Amino acid sequence: QGPVCTNLGLKPGQRLTVKGKIAPNAKSFVMNLGKDATLVGLHFNPRFDAHGDVNTIVCNSKKVEEWGAEHREAVFPFQKGGTAEITFSVNQNDVTVHLPGHQFTFPNRLNLSVFDYFDTQGDFTLQSLSWE
Question: What pTM did the predictor assign?
Answer without folding.
Answer: 0.97
